[in-house]
Specification:
Blueprint: H1 9-14, H2 35-41, H3 46-50, H4 53-67, E1 72-73, H5 80-84, E2 89-92, E3 96-99, H6 121-134, E4 139-144, H7 146-155, H8 163-171, H9 173-197, E5 201-206, H10 214-220, H11 222-230, E6 239-243, H12 250-255, E7 260-262, H13 269-276, E8 281-286, H14 295-309, E9 315-319, H15 329-343
Parallel strand pairs: 1-4, 4-5, 5-6, 6-7, 7-8, 8-9
Antiparallel strand pairs: 2-3
C-alpha cells in the first residue's frame, strides 16, 4: 500500500508516537515571503483568493514544493467563515480584518448564524484538490478561535488593547458567552468541513488570547475553545491549539481538547514541557525574527529547539508565530534541511 498522511512524521509526532525525524512546517508558510505567491496573488483581493479553489490549491502547495516541509497549511484566513455567513467585512491590506458593524449589543448578534458545509463548498473542493496533490504529505486545516474572532467583531478590527472586548466580557457576561458560543459553532464547523474533506490535522489559532489572565481565560474563553475543538473529536485526527503570548495559559489550552499545544517564542520548550506535565506534544518555537540573523546564530538556536523538543512526548518544529513577509525563502528551506538532518533517527 502507498504511504498515507497517517504514516507521516508530523501525524506520528502529533499523536505522541515515535517519528522518523522531527517534522517541520511554518505558520504563514503559504504565501507571505514567497515571490511566486506575490505574483499569483497580484490583482486578487485576499478574500477572493481564499474562496477560489484553484488559487487556494496552488498557494498551499507552493511552500511544500519549495521548502520540503512535512505538512501543508491550508491557505485561508480566520475571517473566511464569518464572511461565508454574510458578515460585512473586508481584509484591508496593511491593516487586517475590518468589520463594518462591530458587535456591541445583543441586537448586533443578528449578524451571526450557524455555519454549515453548504456555506463553504469551495473549501471542501479546495481540500479535496489539495489532498489529491499532496499524497502522503498531510494537510493541516485551521480556524480562528472564538476569542480572537470575538475580538475582531467587537473591536471592529485589530486592536492593541482590546478595550471594547474586555469591557463587553466583564460588563455583559451573558452577551459575551452567547457571542462566543455562536463563534465556537462557526469555528468548529469550519474545522469539521476541512477534516471531513481530507485534512489530516487541524489547528485552532488564537492570536489575541495572550492578552487575558488565567482567570479570565478560565471564566470567559475555555469552554468555547473546547467546543470548537470538540467539533472534530470524533474524527480521530490530531488537534493543535496555538496562541500568541500564552505562556501562562498553556495547560488550559491543552485541557481545552488538543493533542498538541503550540508554544510561541517567548517561552522555551523546556519550560513549556514542564508546565504541560508531559501530557501533550508541543509545537514551536523559533522566533521569526531570528530568520534574519547570521546563519551561525540561527543554526545554534534551531539545534537548541530540536534538543529541547526531545523532552516532549512529541515535537513539531515551527516558528513561534508566522513567517515575516521579508523573510528570505532560502533561509526557510535551509532550516527545514537542518531540522531533518539533526533529528533523523
Amino acid at each position: 500500500m502507498s504511504p498515507s498522511p497517517r504514516d507521516s512524521a508530523l501525524v506520528h509526532a502529533a499523536r505522541r508516537e515515535p517519528a522518523a525525524h522531527t517534522p517541520v512546517w511554518f505558520m504563514r508558510q503559504a504565501g507571505r515571503s514567497l515571490p511566486e505567491y506575490r505574483a499569483l496573488r497580484a490583482g486578487t483581493q485576499m478574500l477572493q483568493a481564499c474562496r477560489r479553489p484553484d488559487l487556494v490549491t496552488e498557494i498551499t502547495l507552493q511552500p511544500v514544493r519549495r521548502h520540503g516541509v512535512d505538512a501543508a497549511i491550508f491557505f485561508s484566513d480566520i475571517v473566511v467563515p464569518l464572511h461565508a455567513i454574510g458578515v460585512d467585512l473586508d481584509i484591508v491590506p496593511g491593516v487586517g480584518p475590518v468589520i463594518a458593524r462591530p458587535i456591541r449589543s445583543r441586537a448586533d448578534l443578528s449578524q451571526l448564524r450557524d455555519l454549515t458545509a453548504a456555506d463553504v463548498p469551495d473549501i471542501t473542493e479546495s481540500v479535496r484538490l489539495l489532498t489529491a496533490e499532496l499524497g502522503a504529505t498531510p494537510l493541516i486545516g485551521f480556524a480562528g478561535a472564538p476569542f480572537t474572532l470575538a475580538s475582531y467583531l467587537v473591536e471592529g478590527g485589530p486592536s492593541k488593547n482590546h478595550e471594547h472586548t474586555k469591557a463587553l466580557m466583564h460588563g455583559d457576561p451573558a452577551l459575551w458567552h452567547d457571542l462566543c458560543a455562536q463563534l465556537a459553532q462557526i469555528s468548529g464547523a469550519f474545522l469539521r468541513v476541512q477534516a471531513q474533506a481530507g485534512a489530516s490535522v487541524v489547528q485552532l489559532f488564537d492570536s489575541w488570547v495572550g492578552h487575558l489572565s488565567r482567570a479570565d481565560y478560565t471564566t470567559y474563553v475555555a469552554e468555547h475553545s473546547a467546543r470548537a475543538l470538540g467539533a472534530v473529536a470524533d474524527l480521530d485526527i490530531p488537534r493543535i491549539h496555538f496562541g500568541v503570548g500564552t505562556g501562562e495559559l498553556l495547560p488550559l489550552m491543552g485541557a481545552a481538547g488538543a493533542e498538541v499545544v503550540g508554544v510561541d517564542y517567548r517561552v522555551s520548550l523546556t519550560d513549556a514541557v514542564a508546565r504541560l506535565g508531559g501530557e501533550y506534544a508541543v509545537q514551536g518555537n523559533l522566533d521569526p525574527a531570528l530568520l534574519f540573523a547570521p546563519w551561525e546564530a540561527l543554526e545554534r538556536r534551531v539545534r537548541e529547539i530540536v534538543a529541547e523538543g526531545q523532552a516532549a512526548p512529541g515535537h513539531i518544529f515551527n516558528l513561534g508565530h508566522g513567517v515575516l513577509p521579508d523573510t528570505d525563502p532560502d533561509v526557510l528551506t535551509r532550516v527545514v534541511d537542518l531540522v531533518h538532518e539533526i533529528s533523523a533517527r
